[in-house]
Amino acid sequence: MIAIVDYGIGNLHSVSKALQRLGKETVITKERDTLLQAKAVVLPGVGSFGEAMDNLEKMDLVGALRDMYLEGRPILGICLGLQLFFERSQESPRKKGLTFLSGEVRKLPPTAKIPHIGWNRVYFKRVTPFTQEIPQGRFFYFANSFYVIPEDETCVVGICNYNVVIPAVVNTDNLWGVQFHPEKSAQWGMKFLENWVKSLPA
Amino acid sequence: MLAKRIIPCLDVKEGRVVKGIHFEDIKDVGDPVELAKRYEQEGADELVFLDITASYEQREIMIHVAEKVAEVLTIPFTVGGGIGSAEHVSKLLKAGADKASINTQAVLNPNLVSELAEKFGSQCVVVAIDVKRTWDRITHRSYWEVFINGGRTPTGKDAILWAQQVEKLGAGEILLTSMDTDGTQSGYDISLTRKIAEKVNIPVIASGGAGKLEHLAAVLQEGKADAALVASLFHYRYSTIPEAKTFLKKRGIPVRTED
């Protein structure tokens, strides 16, 4: 069972459907107990940094997520979900993130249109099981105004260019984060999810 | 760099896809789910569903359509038409839509734009602006005027100022329709699109007037649009999306293709 964390806002249906198409059982949940029983977790990308953290705190899920991360259970953060892995964000400066990774989330510079909405090419810095069979420079769908700046750049697996270099795929241990929306990125997005799903314990 | 997007627009009335010419004269061209899937397979970058159902009660049908579409689609889609509250947007997003497009209600209640942006994020909020070149009897000059209620009601608002205002309010994108060119298939309004695309720092989706592939190239290059909305050109199979992408690529316009 893969748990999709419900912050109470936005589109969770699409991620859930995409994983179901790959033969996985999913549950969209706000419940700590349901979350703790899941084999893997998806933190989807809806709402703002502050609101998402507020809701996670209210639902008492911050500790549960941290425990799951430390136990080594696979967690996939999508868009805002990836940003929540970090310590803080310019979107909500007073709010502390999940702090699984050191670094911060910054607003994209106004040298290009913001939000960064649409299809951009993703290039991989190294080969991982998750990027298997996805060639360099394929298009993925993005919809973000903020981007992550990890302290330790070795966690950046894939990037895209938008006047700045945006980390598009981030990984350390059991933690995977993507700035794009794989569930909205047609065949290559589905391939990415398929690779992630294949890596999960049965 | 982002690819320029090609976005088929499906007008939906009571759950069926129709296409209005000059906002009137409607023909039935099919089932939204089937059409959506077909356009995705052809390489559409995104889809827009515009609900033109007249009555409030039947608006629920569109939420159901969004659910059905979300089950088959792996590209983003926007729903617009008659949206006037955060609750309505929340229902659409929960049903699987990625963005909501608001038009009349944004003009009547600009705070709605900021409310939606705060609640769901700017990337979910598209403000649709219907524009017509109008003669101002007081200043004796023409300007681009914003119309609401499906193009029936003039507002006296200047489209450029309104576009800048919705950006400040938190809109993530502008869906700009020229009522002068819409339904004519004689090409997008390049000067309007360019003017607005230069005055805002959010993506602009150009709409109204696509009749051949040259029109797409023109609005994405000279018009500086980030995306082109297309209806009849694709619906009636005058051109297909692969043809459009090949054409644009040859012109040096970055588009999403599989190579």
Account of the protein in words:
- The complex is a heterodimer of chains A (202) and B (259).
- With 202 residues, chain A is α/β, with parallel strands linked by helices.
- Chain A has a single domain, classed as Class I glutamine amidotransferase (GATase) domain (Rossmann fold, 3-Layer(aba) Sandwich), CATH 3.40.50.
- Chain A has helices spanning 13-21, 32-37, 49-58, 62-71, 80-84, 186-199; strands spanning 2-5, 26-29, 40-43, 75-78, 88-89, 103-107, 116-124, 138-144, 146-150, 156-162, 164-172, 175-178.
- Chain A has a 9-stranded mixed sheet with strand order 2-1-3-4-12-11-10-7-8. A 3-stranded mixed sheet of chain A has the order 5-6-9.
- The termini of chain A are close together.
- The model of chain A has no long low-confidence stretch (mean pLDDT 94).
- The two termini of chain B are 16 Å apart.
- Mean pLDDT of chain B is 92; it is low at 20-28.
- Chain B has an 8-stranded parallel barrel, surrounded by 8 helices.
- Chain B has one domain (5-250): Alpha-Beta Barrel (TIM Barrel).
- Chain B is an alpha/beta fold.
- Chain B is 36% helix and 29% strand.
- In chain B, α1 runs parallel beside α2 (60-72).
- Chain B has helices at 32-42, 60-72, 86-95, 104-108, 111-120, 159-169, 190-199, 213-221, 232-235, 241-250, and strands at residues 5-13, 16-21, 24-30, 47-51, 77-80, 99-102, 125-136, 141-148, 153-158, 173-178, 204-207, 227-230.
- At the A-B interface, α1, β7, β8 and α6 of A face α2, α3 and α5 of B.
